[in-house]
Amino acid sequence: xxxxxxxxxxxxxxxxxxxxxxxxxxxxxxxxxxxxxxxxxxxxxxxxxxxxxxxxxxxxxxxxxxxxxxxxxxxxxxxxxxxxxxxxxxxxxxxxxxxxxxxxxxxxxxxxxxxxxxxxxxxxxxxxxxxxxxxxxxxxxxxxxxxxxxxxxxxxxxxxxxxxxxxxxxxxxxxxxxxxxxxxxxxxxxxxxxxxxxxxxxxxxxxxxxxxxxxxxxxxxxxxxxxxxxxxxxxxxxxxxxxxxxxxxxxxxxxxxxxxxxxxxxxxxxxxxxxxxxxxxxxxxxxxxxxxxxxxxxxxxxxxxxxxxxxxxxxxxxxxxxxxxxxxxxxxxxxxxxxxxxxxxxxxxxxxxxxxxxxxxxxxxxxxxxxxxxxxxxxxxxxxxxxxxxxxxxxxxxxxxxxxxxxxxxxxx
Length: 413
Description:
By secondary structure, the protein is of the alpha/beta class. Helix content is 47%, strand content 11%. It has 17 helices and twelve strands. It has helices at residues 2-25, 29-32, 37-47, 50-57, 64-73, 119-129, 144-150, 167-177, 195-200, 210-217, 220-234, 254-257, 267-276, 289-298, 319-330, 345-353, 363-395, and strands at 76-78, 93-95, 98-100, 104-106, 135-136, 155-158, 181-185, 280-286, 302-305, 335-339, 359-361, 408-410. The strands form three sheets. The protein has an eight-stranded parallel beta sheet. A two-stranded antiparallel sheet has the order 1-12. A two-stranded antiparallel sheet has the order 2-3. The longest helix has 33 residues, at 363-395. The protein is globular, with a radius of gyration of 21 Å. Residues 1-15 have low confidence and may be disordered. Pfam families: FMN_dh. It comes from Comamonas resistens.
């Protein structure tokens, strides 16, 4: 009986394997040797000017939380099941009334349009084409209205203005643009101590310098394909989406002023937004069970357990460690999601097993957009999707509903 069933299983799985190899063979030369999301980081280091790469890759202070995010996934190992018919497996998930093709999406990354040409549009449109969610950053350089029109399934992430009189106008603009899901990031009361930005020469606003000019000259693909192309076709980039009106130019000294003074914000501001906002509301930056309860009680349909990729408070707990505690408290009432540190399909599945309905990746997709544009982002999504698919098969799972805590074992205290 076993031998008679084997050909059917092989036939069902063969197209997936062939598609993966065929997709790689059809890639442009500079993407063919990129076999994992880690490879995109190495390629982006060579492609981007040192200040820009340092901004995207860096974290706060000693990068303890940045490393802890990755280490947290090593604290769990899989307990796989064998001899299970997984020929009909799929990784679709349902969230907020929509079915997505995979349990991962694109996290918001600021000023992405100077790392990749039209980066916000590239990320949003490629995610939509692959039927995964993308979150547009509030510190983006392309007007939100353009992205919402080009990729209507995109979510919008906002940093609340420190001047609270400007909050209502921003919320009204997001709604008028057509976004159905609003993500409010709440873990930036003050600017983080990102010493790496100083060391790599990144500043906000960007300041022209001989070092920046030299970095651009020795990286002509970025200089010609992103920076000069942007200036010629669209003029000087502005912070387009911080307020109801256009924000400061990228090179303006007022850019830093516009993003400070948030230390007085509190849950009452979220309550007011919940009363005015008619769409889905997600609170991003939760690392405490009581905060998760507060957000849920206010009426948030989702929360993102996140430490901002290690970019804010160094030494804070890794989101994967907090995830099961948050899920146990509010997972029956709201959609619990997670970001920070995810680089492999196995990471995605470990987070799902601990209760995440969806996970998000920022840096890897930003690197992919910088190195390869839409083709790069599509390749990154395909690599991660194929890893999830293979790992599901080897776990003996046919759907995300079967990826539970029973699939995991603690590997160290």
